[in-house]
Description:
alpha+beta, 6 helices
Amino acid sequence: MAEELASIRNQNVWELVDHKHGLNTVDTKWVYSIKYSDTGEPVAKARLVARGFKDSNTYADSDVYAPVVPRTAILWLLSTAHCLHLKMVQLDFKMAFLNGTLEEEIYVNFPRGMPEMPGKTLKLIKALYSLKIASKTWYNLLHSIFLSLGFSQTVIEPCVYFRNTSSVVAIAIIYIDDILFTTNNIDLQSEFLQAMKSQFQLKITLKPACFVGLQFSTIDGKFILHQHNYIEKFILLSGMADANPTGI
């Protein structure tokens, strides 16, 4: 909780304002979860989210919907990267939704763990998770950055971007707060990573082996897709970890 609140303060997610009579405010709550790293290690997470259903602003459907890359596009990119021998890198954004600047006026109450101040409330400058417009605000930010870097958006898949010339191939796909980027040009890769690092806190994996739960590796020149960690997790949850294996 302390780490999450510190990140929120560092990113100037809200500002302290006077609480006016009749002002509609949105509650927040903490969500605790256990996530798993690429190696299968459990990691405890605490995230502050807004109770977005209490937001009284009216939004169009296009303001609350953000596209997500389908699995078919992920498989296509992995296949293309292997066949063309492209360099691959993965970007995992920290506190992604907290980067999207809001145009709407949204106020939230003081979260648990933060001392309240009488007569004051918090006005959001940037989005919190679970706001109705949080995902679209984040997607719009990434979209504008890709365009500024000279990338074009594919017509069929709005989460697939490319920047190709006669000698350079660069393709990126977006899955919420994860990006898989491939290219045959090391200078372009460096330019792309530097542009992202200058604006966001993120984790960069230069030799990714997993993307949104889909694991992959190259063995003896063959590109292999598998879900080893998922199967292990399912076996543990099923209480079958000590069962004797058998052939089929």
